[in-house]
Amino acid sequence: MTDRTDRGDRTGRVVAAVVAVVAGVVVGAAGTLVHRWTAGGVPTGLPAALALVVVGAVFARSAADGAGVFLLGLAGVLTTQTMTFVSPNGDVLVTDQVLSYAWLLGMPLAAALSMLAPRTWFSDGPAARRAGTAR
After folding, report:
1. 28 near 107, Cβ under 8 Å?
2. Which of 94, 97, 110 is nearest to 47 (CA)?
3. Distance (Å, rounded) from C-alpha 8 to C-alpha 29?
4. What is the pLDDT along the chain (135 residues), one digit of tens a residue?
5. Can you name the residues that pair with 39 across neighbouring β-strands?
6. Residues 34 and 105: beta-carbon distance below 8 Å
7. Which residues on adjacent β-strands are paired with residue 42?
């Protein structure tokens, strides 16, 4: 017989994985739509899109650790590639420009960047105290 907490833990992991995939699709689609935005000749869309990916990846890591980041990155890359190569009526969202190449290469790198954050940021345990600090 399985323990209720074991079943609940598995359900939580599945939900976290599904949320990471959905977040990856949203991040990939939103980034693909905005990566070419400019304001006064300054590219503002690409940094915003990459920041969105980092935020989504940190969220996915907090929910599902490395597997969540992988799923978010994979879903984001698949969404971006689909929006790049499958276009109705010949509309082009990702062009043959440096900004578009930076988006296509930067998206998975930005997702992987979240794995450099310390594991303690995502821990449910109590924070470690420094020696010599008052309680």
Report:
1. yes
2. 110
3. 32
4. 455 555 667 888 899 999 999 999 999 999 999 999 999 989 999 999 999 999 999 999 988 888 999 999 999 999 999 988 887 777 778 888 899 999 999 999 999 988 888 888 777 777 777 776 665
5. 42
6. no
7. 39
Q: Taking the model in full, what pTM does it have?
A: 0.81
Here the tokens at position 60 are 């996915």
Instruction: Give CA–CA dist 82/95, Å, rounded.
Output: 14
Cβ contact 93:83 at 8 Å: yes
Q: Is 38 helix (H, G, I), strand (E, B) or coil?
A: strand
In sequence order, the 6+-apart residues with CB closer than 8 A to the CB of 20 are 60, 63, 64, 67, 68, 69, 71, 72, 75
Q: In the numeric block, which tokens belong to residue 63?
A: 């929910």
